[in-house]
Amino acid sequence: VNFVVCQLFALLAAIWFRTYLHSSKTSSFIRHIVATLLGLYLALFCFGWYALHFLVQSGISYCIMIIIGVESMHKYCFVFALGYLTVCQITRVYIFDYGQYSADFSGPMMIITQKITSLAYEIHDGMFRKDEELTPSQRVLAVRRMPSLLEYVSYNCNFMGILAGPLCSYKDYITFIEGRSYHMTQSGENGKEEVQYERTEPSPNEAVVQKLLVCGLSLLVHLTISNMLPVEYNIDERFQATASWPTKITYLYMSLLAARPKYYFAWTLADAINNAAGFGFRGYDRNGAAHWDLISNLRIQQIEMSTSFKMFLDNWNIQTALWLKRVCYERASISPTIQTFFLSAIWHGVYPGYYLTFLTGVLMTLAARAMRNNFRHYFLKTPQLKLFYDIITWAVTQIAISYTVVPFVLLSIKPSFTFYSSWYYCLHVCSILVLWLLPVKKTQKGKNIHENHQLSQSRKVDERENSLGEDSFPTTNSICNQNQAKASRPPSSRQ
């Protein structure tokens, strides 16, 4: 109740913030101060004195950044922020109240941990590494100066994202606070000089209303259907003994489908709050329609219609997936997939079910990648074959996802193993067999051999699929601004 009340208050505060403290009417200093104070007030109201952990974690991390220096501070900040989060999660889970989510102050700390580590790496990239060493996305996100303490605390604890996020890049946040979200650059006549100009600020009202409608529907579904289809019923002894396999598969899918609306509600409401404050504008499509999904955390349609494990993960908790990619996957030298899933498990918490889910997720991801690389190109020859492939992969993906995340919901070891044993670990066994029988051979460039041979055939199809690759989904307003420079051109991002 505290969470919902605070988020509704934050929504009203966001409307007031955009109306009366717009960047055109007041200084960025005032906007930082107000956003921070409102955020700390909400944290104090919702979590009491536990909210002090937010300031302690942010304050010590800032001291580390200043004292250690740009060469190594990203490593120390990463270890400290994640370690502090883990200690708080251990005390909350094993000392206070196992399995209960009341006063779960570690939830906002998860978002703050993402912001601390992301910014530390962005400062390291921008102030220590050479540009030629950076990937295109790292170059765009790189921060070229050390933020002030006020900017740092405002970024971590502003009222728009302190309770439920989502994560945003530091450059995007500062651009929003300073009112540069709608400033664009255009090449001058000589092709070298850049001309700055400002485009009319679009209204977020339509996007906010649409997202609030999604929130209402999600909440309604959660309060009604979720109670009728509890995930725990999958391990009910009578159900396991009497239900047929088609019934078990159907109920598994339906129960996990019913468990998702509460996440849809929380993340969409958080997105609406940011939009109401004027934050989250990504750009215009070719028809001139404004898109307010720069920091959106999910795409419901793509989630429910996912035809691959990767497609599901790319559209579920989007900003966390981008964080894992930026701080781990892109920088890991050995087994990046395994390291990324392991980091995700540590970040989520200390319940054993989390680790079972992410260990299973490693197997599923690798097996799905092997199957896709070895067989997908055979089904791209005709639209009918592609449709057949999509239907089969949708069904398999939805069951695999549901099978994987059951321990995430059950939390404990015993019920999780009870579920997997009732299914005879069938998908674990299938994944291992796939990896054993269909090894994924890599070329020197790290691409799959089959993928290289079939790239020209599958590229057009891939371009229509929703993913979060660097070239398919802009992650900062600076990318959007470049794309919007010529109004007659559509932005490079796929809509």
Automatic annotation (TrEMBL):
CC annotations in GO: endoplasmic reticulum membrane
Basic and acidic residues composition-biased segments: 449-467
Keywords from the UniProt entry: Acyltransferase, Endoplasmic reticulum, Membrane, Transferase, Transmembrane, Transmembrane helix
GO biological process assignments: lipid modification; phosphatidylcholine acyl-chain remodeling; phosphatidylethanolamine acyl-chain remodeling; phosphatidylserine acyl-chain remodeling; regulation of chondrocyte differentiation
InterPro entries: LPLAT_7/PORCN-like, MBOAT_fam
Cell compartment(s), UniProt: Endoplasmic reticulum membrane
Biased composition (Polar residues): 473-495
Pfam families: MBOAT
Residue numbers spanned by region Disordered: 449-495
TM ranges: 33-56, 76-95, 341-366, 387-410, 422-440
Record carries keyword DNA damage: no
Membrane topology: Multi-pass membrane protein
GO molecular function ontology, one term from the record: 1-acylglycerophosphocholine O-acyltransferase activity
Superkingdom of the organism of origin: Eukaryota
Protein name: Membrane bound O-acyltransferase domain containing 2
Highest classification ranks of the organism: Eukaryota, Metazoa, Chordata, Craniata, Vertebrata
Gene coding for it: MBOAT2
